[in-house]
Amino acid sequence: MFSFEKTKKTTRFKKYSMFDVVLCIILAIVVLSIIVPFINVVVISFTSQQEFLQTPILIFPKNPTLKNYYDLVKDGRILIGYRTTFLILLIGLPINLILTTSFAYGLSRKGFPGRKLIFYLVVFTMIFNGGVIPMYMLIKELKLTNSIWSVILAYGINTFYMIIMRNYFATLPESLIESAKLDGAGEWRILFSIILPLSMPIIATVTLFYSVDRWNEWYYSMIFIRNANLQPLQLILRSIVIDSQVRAHAASSGAVLEEFKFTNGLKMCAVIFTMLPVMCIFPFLQRYFVKGVLIGAIKS
Question: Model pTM?
Answer without folding.
Answer: 0.75
